[in-house]
What does this fold into?
Amino acid sequence: MLELKGICVSFRRERQDKLFGHTRRQVLFDVSFSVREGSCLGILGESGSGKSTMGRVLCGLLKPDRGEVLLDGVSVYASRAGRKNLQNKLSVVFQDYTTSANPRFQVKDIIGEGLAVRERREGRALDRPKEVRELLNLVGLSWEFAGRFPHEISGGQLQRVCIARAVACRPEVILFDEAISSLDAHTQVQVMDLLRELKEKLKLTYVFITHDLTSITYLCDDVLFLYQGRVSEHLPVSRISGTKDEYARKLLESIVVFDTEDREDCGENDLLEKGGIL
Ligand SMILES: Nc1ncnc2c1ncn2[C@@H]1O[C@H](COP(=O)(O)OP(=O)(O)O)[C@@H](O)[C@H]1O
Ligand SMILES: [Mg+2]
It folds into this structure.
């Protein structure tokens, strides 16, 4: 259903040695993969590996230099109709929920942004209070939250609101870019449980970008490792421990060290260094 073919992206970089002129730095190299309908694909890679850039290409915000994105067989960047098709079927949840929600909007208006997308698509006005109530309910919040501003609720609650906004337009696919990374560990698990539940209930497909392997094993069916802008491995999560990929192995070892008695033998710097990979 969702497919990336040979995606290459580069950014303009001013030259240091000359006053005028510029070079280009390539960030994504021939990235190809597809996402199975109803599955959750995790995209894992260290900081700067090109995950968010790939996410922007995938959600229609950044036209690649080469390659194409296909959603249900329709090319996203080839025509306006392609972008419309994507807007109607794909929602995004970003890491920084504090800036992705307008601080002057009440919760009901934040969710209303997602409802507006659906109203445009269906060409009719929805019963907004009813919809907001149902959506709040769906993400585990009560109606009391509808009139609150972002600064009046916790980070976990605000991320639930952003999730409600994402599902409000009834998408087929949701892209999460580090969506739970700024939450504390306990809240992360609660939000991941919510995401699992919503995926089943609403028959959604997820693309879950993260630098954290633990959340991949908790939530995803398949995992794709991105290393310096290239796909280094793509395999089912159930086979992750058998990966031959060097980078993937490094990531796995850096996780294992926290779970075994090795921890005792590991100096603090060692732990920081290994933890830093994730
Ligand atoms: N708009 C941009 N202009 C120039 N360079 C960029 C831009 N966006 C990202 N980059 C560069 O592309 C690389 C990959 O960034 P990004 O996709 O954000 O990585 P990740 O999300 O994996 O941390 C980084 O080196 C970053 O500096
Ligand atoms: Mg990123």
About this structure: The mean pLDDT is 88. The longest strand covers residues 22-35. Strands lie at 2-14, 22-35, 40-44, 66-71, 74-75, 90-94, 173-177, 205-210, 222-227, 230-236. The longest helix spans residues 185-202.
